[in-house]
Every structure is written in C-alpha cells, then in structure tokens.
Amino acid sequence: MFTEFHLGYGSEEIKISLPQQQILHVIEGKHAEAVADIPAAVKAALANPIGTPPLNQIVKTGDKVCLIASDITRAWVRHDLFLPPLLDELNAADIPDSDITLVVALGAHRHHTAEENITTYGQEVVERITIKQSHAPVAADFVKIGTTSRGVDSYIYKTVAQADKVILTGGIAYHLMAGFGGGRKSIMPGISGYSSIQGNHSFCLHDTVGQGISPHCISGKLSGNNMHEDMTEMAAMLGPAFLLNAVLTPAGKFAGFVAGHWHDAWLEGCRTVEDIFGVPITAKADLVIGSAGGFPKDINLYQGSKTIDNAYMAVKEGGVIILLLECRDIKEPPDFSGWFDFVSLQDRELQLRKGFTVPGFIALKCGLIAKQVSLILVTLPQNKDFIAKAGIIPATSLEEAMAIAEQKLGGKDYTITVMPHAANTVPVLKG
After folding, report:
1. Do 25 and 163 belong to one domain?
2. Whole-prediction pTM value?
3. Residue 126 sits in which domain range?
4. 365 and 424: one domain?
5. SS3 letters for the chain?
C-alpha cells in the first residue's frame, strides 16, 4: 500500500508515492478557524486583556503614546488590518492621533521607503499618525536605560524612552534563535541600538570558540535560552504599558489576538502558536522529506533555511533530509549568500563572532546541519554549484534525491517522516 503526497515546489507541485508501512509521521499544522471580524476581535482583546486592566484604563488624557510595530520583513503580520481599530480604541480613551507615534522596529534592517510604510501599515495609519524609524546603526538616536545581568548595555530609541506609554504590536511565530517571535522582540532587536543587538545576539553562538552555535537558542525553547532571557530583561527595563500581538493560522489568516501585559499576554500567544504549529512526534525518522510549501517560501535558500531547521528536528542523528526548494533567486539576499564564500565553517564562525548578523548565523547553522546529516536539496539545475558550495547535496529531481538517500541509508529499509509545509511546522519530540 502506498500513500501519495503532493509537495509544493516553486509554483508547482511534485508528487511522490511512499510505502505506508515506512511512514512514521506526516507533520502538518493544526486547523485553526480564521477571525471573521478583525476590528471586533481586536476590540475584544483590548477590553479583556491578560494581566492588566483594559487599554482604556491604562492610558489617560495627555499621554504621549508610542506604538512599536514590526517592519516590512514581517509583512505577514498585517499591521494594516489591526492597527486602525487599535488607534480607534486609543481615540475613544481620549488619546488623539496627534499624541500617537508609531516607531518602525527596524533593528539593523534598512529604512523603509514612504511606499513601504503604506504597504506595511496601510494608507489610513500613515495619514493619521506620525511615523518614525528606529535604525540601530545611528548611535545618536539611542539612550542607555540599563545593563542586563549578562553585561549587555541596553540602548533604546529615544522616542520610545521619552513616551508616556509604550504599546508593543506584532505577530507571534516560532523563531529559530529566540524560541518565539513577537513580544519582547519589538524592543530587542526592534528599537535597540546596534551594540545592544550585537551583545544580545552573540548568545546564539556557543560559549566556546570553535564549537559553533549555542544548543539553547532554538525554536520553541524559552527556559535556559540566554538570548531570550537577555531580551526579556531589556524589555523589563523599559516596562511597556501594553501589548497587542497576533497569532496566525496555517493559511496565514488571523487565528486571534492576545493583549495585555507585555510578557504574560505574549506567553499565552506562544502557547497558542505551539498548539497550532508545534506538532508532536513520538520518534525521529531515518529520512525526512519536506517542502517549504512552494513559492515564495522557497524563493531562495535564506527563506528556505527555516525549512531546513524544522526538518532537522525530525530526523535521526546521521539520517537523511530531502527538501524541495526551487530557489529561483538563489543568490538573494547578498548579505546571506556571501557567507558561503567562507568555505570553512570555522572561518564562518570566527567572522560571525567579529560582527554578528542574522544571515551569517543562519549560514553557519545550515552548514553545521549539513555536516551532521545528509542534506539533499531538490532545486533548479542552475543552482547546483551554489548549493554544493553551501555544503549541501544538490539534486534536480526527487527521483535523483531518493536514489542518493537510499545509497546513504544503505538500502530500502528505513522510516520516513513527511513535512508538506516544513517552513511553518515544528516537530516536538515527546518524552
């Protein structure tokens, strides 16, 4: 008996039939109903918060309110759909638009264009309130508010530091370093200075030089995650007044909103993300076959790296991973692909310790995974040299990849886990 799977690859699908008796798990996110009335859902969350009084009791007449919002790299959050009802609730609490400033949490990303502000937050928001951009490299724009217990000085954007009330907005999803996104990430790295970001993100590297990355800074892990704990200390120093974060469905619609205390409400949102996207498994497989879900999630290797990371959680030590990643823009973005010019992983790590970047970290992690398992990528023929340079085995068809996998596994007697949407689903090994 065979089971047929249709796996996304670019704008197409690739079919594969697998023996049922060899299939260990099929990893898919849980179905979640999409919010039907977004303004009503936002209003309900603001009126029934977790860990704080309702928003209209948090703010008062005369307050200068600062909203922190994710930049265009998190466009999936769809701020344009839930910021207007948040502004309306602030207005109803006697906070006029003229007393509200939105700070774009760029971290070290480039500035938005005026058009990108409209794309990310919507025409209505752009016309109603002042928008400023927190750009980490501009040191003069930041002020020190303290030092964490791990010795990292916390510099934050002055506009945020000077506000009477700070409200965090964004979306919560699994994060391959911080455990989960959203919440305190609006502050670190969102509106933090460059030296603070470098100091915090360095915790993602192993304490010992030459040992690569920290085993504690991974998807879904908060307890013992130095990066997350340092972020949380920085957020506590600022003491945001309120939080409004979104959780999405596997289809990219709003599953719901959490509001209230900047940490407690966020934790509740993390639990919802775990419930939807954290898929329990009872054992790891010899072979994992996965797809990012097609374009645009497999537009390049950088976007596909999340797929690699998640699939790695489902495979046995020394096993094989086959991933379908078309990568039509294989050399984008340059600040990621350039890291593969460091052929030696040790050189890649040493350069990363000199100046941490998230693309550099992901390039290092991909290289380390490819050393620990046989990582095979089904991709376009023209990508072969680049993929090989990255330390990954290229294949131009799923049939070719399966032949390589069976050679690595020493025959046809092996277990298989299939991940049709591996970019979003996180295997959680029970027991």
Report:
1. no
2. 0.91
3. 38-276
4. yes
5. CEEEEEEEECCEEEEEEEEHHHEEEECCCCCCCCCCCHHHHHHHHHHCCECCCCHHHHCCCCCCEEEEEECHHHHHHCHHHHHHHHHHHHHHCCCCHHHEEEEEECCCCCCCCHHHHHHHHCHHHHHHCEEEEECCCCHHHEEEEEECCCCCEEEEEHHHHCCCEEEEEEEECEECCCEECCHHHHCCCCCECHHHHHHHHHHHECCCCCCCECCCCCCCCCCCCHHHHHHHHHHHHHCCCEEEEEEECCCCCEEEEEEECCCHHHHHHHHHHHHHHEEEECCCEEEEEEECCCCCCCCCHHHHHHHHHHHHCCEEEEEEEEEECCCCCCCCCHHHHHHHHCCCHHHHHHHHHHCCCHHHHHHHHHHHHHHHCEEEEECCHHHHHHHHHCCCEEECCHHHHHHHHHHHHCCCCCCEEEECCCCCCEEEECC
Q: What is the mean pLDDT of the segment spanning 21-29? A: 95
Dump pLDDT digits (tens) for 369-380.
999 999 999 999
254 shares its domain with 298: no
Shared domain for 196 and 339, answered yes or no, is: no
* pLDDT score of 274 more than 80: yes
- What's the pLDDT tens digit per position in 142-168? 999 999 999 999 999 999 999 999 999
Domain boundary among 276, 291, 306: 276
Q: Do both 234 and 302 map to the same domain?
A: no
